[in-house]
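_Full entry_
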Amino acid sequence: MSIRNIAFLVVAIVVAGGTALYVKTWIGAERARAQIAQPGEKPKALAVSMVLVAKRTMTAGSFVKPDLLEWKPWPEDGIIEGYLVRKPNAANPEDGSEPVDPKAGFEGAVVRNELAAGQPVTNDRVVHPGERGFLAAVLEPGSRAVSVPVNATTGISGFIFPGDWVDVLLTMRVKSDEDGKAKTRYFSQTLLAGTRVLAIDQTVENVDGKAAPAKTATLQVSPKQAEEIAIALTMGDLSLSLRSLARDNEGETTRKPNPNSYTLDMDVYHMLGDRRLFGGAKAAGQQVHVLRGDEAETAKF
């Protein structure tokens, strides 16, 4: 066989192979297009479930509240152990009981590490009250935790919860000497302003569902303020005043109160000077201390 015939044969084989490959590819594409065009056939849907996630970013040490959590669809093949998945019949239990909201289980918990918005919330990513390391997780660097006794009155009837901001008020009695007579006077002042509540021992009784007033409240303070609270507890009574969550400066923590702001018992006794109550001009009169050189006298009106 001559070289010309061999070359012609090779070219023929290459052309035939290319034509066969083209025909095979074209037939496969047409078959796929025909399958897509068939009526009644739908692409397979991706299986998803509702997973509890963070609604917005929560920094480490911040308190978790139910309104900061939400349910979001999550691919079932991406769900791992620890994710909280909402059951289809969770909203309407078969036994007719009240539905249990998993969000409530995170009330008062503290974030261990930052939770990004949309990130699933799990129990190992938070610290619950009563668990080891709870105060260490919520306490800001350089701060201290102190507990103060409260009751139904000084603790605002149990309406203070972890994460709230309060003022600490000091009320005390002092002895004064007026006209040679010992008298007891009272005054109150704001000892600490804008103090963060870390924990409170309020519990809910299962018997009647009523909240039991707390006996102690744990506050976040500076080392110096911890000393002030320690000595204030021996001087008088402490009470809490709840502040609005809409603080003046969002990044501001504990603020120093105005030292010139206090209230005396005379500011409360609005009836002083009323002749109908005390009788006579002498009891209702006022007095002025007059200084003349090295002499002092009291002039009464």
Summary: Residues 203-207, 249-253 have pLDDT under 50 and may be disordered.
